[in-house]
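On clarity, I found the account of how folds are encoded harder to follow than it need be. Since the whole study asks how a given chain folds, the encoding of that fold should be made plain. For illustration, here is how one protein appears when written out as sequence plus structure tokens:

:::
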Amino acid sequence: MSGRVLLAVAVALVLAAVALTRVLENQYYYFATYVILQYVVLATAWNILGGYTGYVNFGSAAFFATGAYTAAVLIKAVAAPFPVLLVAGGLVAGLLGLGIGYLTLRLRGVFFAIATLALAVVLQTLVVNWGYVGGSRGIYTLRPARVPFFDNYVEFLFVVMVVLALGALATARWIERSWIGRGLVAIRDNEEAAECMGVPTLRLKLVATTVSGALMGVAGAPFPYYLTYMEPTSAFNLDYAINSLAMPMIGGTTTWVGPLVGAVLLGAAQQVATVTISSALNLLIVGLVVVAFVILAPEGIVGLFRRWRARARA
């Protein structure tokens, strides 16, 4: 599709989301869809570094929580408006990604993954001991009493996450089709060869960590208003790190469509399991599905579809 067609589709989806708030009264559907769309943003952000570049990141929860606590601080300190929370959350998390990338991107493979996991542990320890945001006790956030054009704040957050998910997908698609994306793929395939061919590997990896961190921070910025009570365990939840990695692997890591497919399918399965069985089964579902795809379809659902289409044409 051309850029104009995709823009028209995005606008139509946002308008459809707004229209849905006028007819659907059950608030659970907004909460559940918000979570799924949140994972679309996180999975897309993870894929920019882990899928395109080949650097596996286990620190997704750290960047998500950075955006969430940045928003919480601004709400408590100056009662910042919602757009400021999104920009600030993305900016702080992006700067964190830039700094951590500069320090760790010379590591490769499992060493880089361990470094990103350590980042989440360190940040959570700092937040637990930070009294201004409640420490281990957590912090309460009051939602605004009214929001224009919406009956309640839950509907507003749902539409906001629709916009953020579309923005994350558009960013990933642009990177994939630009010279940046081609450089990242070269790094993933053979970093030494790419560097010998003149690809600015460190610069491109820093771009990937910064953009990935910023998108995760933006996804976390509405979190204080979504829960209204936030504590370190919820903000640094292991689910964010595992799902951010698993969803692109299930959908396919070589294209921007893969994280969308994986997040929608796996996120919806987790929401159904939460309502019908137990939320404790979510990680078990993720583990079983990931193992199945690693064995049977390492290229993900998109890879399977491409293989099937190639056979059909042949």
